[in-house]
Amino acid sequence: MEEVRHWNAAVNDISVHVAEQGSVDGPAVLLLHGFPELWLSWRHQMRALAARGFRAIAPDLRGYGDSDAPTDPAAYSVFHIVGDIVALLNHLGLPKVFVVGHDWGALVAWHLSLFRPDMVRALVTLGVPYFPRGPNPTTESFAALGDGFYIAQFQEPGRAERAFGRYDVATVLKKFYAMEIDELVAPPGVEIIDFLEAPSSPLPWLTDEQLAQYAEKFHKSGFTGPLNYYRMLDTNWRLTAPWNGAKITVPAKFILADKDVGLQSFGIEHYVKSGGLKSNVPDLEVAIIEGHHFLQQEQPERVNSEIFSFLDKFITTVEESA
Fold first, then answer.
1. Among residues 68, 230, 260, 292, which one is catalytic?
2. Is the pTM above the cut of 0.85?
3. Nearest Cα residue to 196 out of 106, 63, 102, 293
4. Annotated catalytic, 260?
5. Does the annotation count 103 as an active-site position?
6. Is 270 a catalytic residue?
7. What letter would DSSP give residue 165?
């Protein structure tokens, strides 16, 4: 098996770190991580994709890991993030790729498919479905959840960073990785990071050594970049007005964990099962499997199987057109 290759590319006025594995001549699969993760979150998928002849490409999104992390929240709009991906694909000379995204990476993948469907052969997302642009700014939609809601606490620059700073970086990450609750809402007067618990034993799907790998990178880059994604939610709502009512037209598969965060509080389960998601993504498959939020690491073999069962439908077409 080929080793993971690491390199940086100057794209969209920043340096983006990329990890890749597999033959450069294989069908390319772009893997987009979420919060608070890194390219490393796709280690199981990269290995499996490479073994099947694919080229797995997993960048650290801007603000994360060994990619540049601008401090200005305005540098983290959805146009900036998708712009990084488009520039990266152009840098690689890849006009069209498969895309797999989890959490924030799923949101980026959905918007890449919305803005540039010509660049997406097919799409797989985990955890976060495509929600069409609502009638009100995003934070107003969550206002009923109160100040204890994690997105509300993430809005004020510096607030979450100060709260996170009461713990070592590995503990902060473990608190998020171990969460098994539906609502990320802290009690009144409590910061979300204080509300979340970090188990004393290693997580079943993450060794202490792997956790240390994550912690080393977040210790270097900090959390401001990742938190700035949340601080641009209302700006994104305003910027995406031209796509109001637009549907995702690329072939897509949505993988949902049956114990993921927000199934009830965000209405995700009802939205998916009622056909709401299908109405906004007409060419859609849905798979609901056992697990929690960080599904591609917790249930890698099942997730890999779901990815391959979908991508394999397009391989003959890809090979014939190559």
1. 230
2. yes
3. 293
4. no
5. yes
6. no
7. T
Q: What is the pLDDT of residue 321?
A: 40
Q: 310 in helix, strand or coil?
A: helix
**DSSP code of residue 119:** G
3-state DSSP call for residue 88? helix
| 143 Cβ contact partners less than 8 Å away, ≥ 6 residues apart | 152
Query: d(Cα 18, Cα 197) in Å, to the nearest integer?
Result: 32
Q: Which two tokens stand for residue 126?
A: 């985990």
Q: Which helix (H) or strand (E) covers residue 279, if one does?
A: helix 276-280
Contact present, 228 and 35 (Cβ < 8 Å): no
**Over the range 42-68, which residues count as b (16 or more CB within 10 Å of their CB) and which as e?**
bbbbbbbbbebebbbbbbbbbbbbbbb
In the beta sheet, which residues pair with residue 30?
57, 99
Torsion 88-91-96-100 (CA) sign: negative
CA-to-CA separations, 246 to 70, 110, 111, 132, 281, in angstroms, rounded: 30, 12, 11, 7, 10
Q: Tell me, which fold does domain 5-321 have in CATH?
A: Rossmann fold (3.40.50)
Contacts for 274 with CB less than 8 Å, ≥ 6 apart? none
Q: End-to-end CA distance of the chain, in Å?
A: 24
Please tell me which residue in 17, 80, 292, 293 is annotated as part of the active site: 293
Distance CA 266, CA 151 (A): 12
pLDDT digits (tens, 9 = 90+) for 11-39: 999 999 999 999 999 999 999 999 999 99
Q: Which of 103, 111, 260, 271 is catalytic?
A: 103
CA distance 59 to 37: 11
CA-atom Rg of the chain in angstroms = 19
Cβ neighbours, 10 Å, residue 13: 12
pLDDT digits (tens, 9 = 90+) for 253-290: 999 999 999 898 889 999 999 999 999 999 999 999 99
